[in-house]
Amino acid sequence: MEKRPRAPRIDCALDAAMTIIEGRWKATILCKLHMKGALRFNQLMKELEVISPKILTKQLREMEEDLLIVRTVKADAPAYAEYSISEKGKSLLPALRMLAEWGIENALKYNVHFDEGTILPDTDPQAS
After folding, report:
1. pTM score > 0.85 for this model?
2. Residues near 29 by Cβ (< 8 Å), separated by ≥ 6?
3. Where are the beta strands (DSSP E) in 39-111?
4. Does residue 122 contact residue 114 with C-beta atoms inside 8 Å?
5. 53-93: pLDDT as tens digits
């Protein structure tokens, strides 16, 4: 499998930002580390449930390379690594919060429900 280049286009600041946070799990990992504090690899696996170890490793390495998280190796017996959100990662939280709010307002309200054999879009709870 050929590795996809991660370099952003140089003419678009939004593309540069999206290149750093692209990846199915990166925003979720940042949120988990922000809410729970430093976590070990296996703790992150439990938090994310459906992610494979290979994908989690890939996402963590990219995030460490982009300085969004910090990997700290603890020399206890046995040695282990802990992941925490960096200051640069924390600086992304307001943007992620705004994206989450946008998702609630614009994406989640169009979920589909199955009710007695019919498919209906969610109704806007504020319209009631």
Report:
1. no
2. 44, 48, 59, 60, 63, 69, 83
3. 39-40, 69-74, 80-85
4. no
5. 999 999 999 999 999 999 999 888 788 899 999 999 999 99
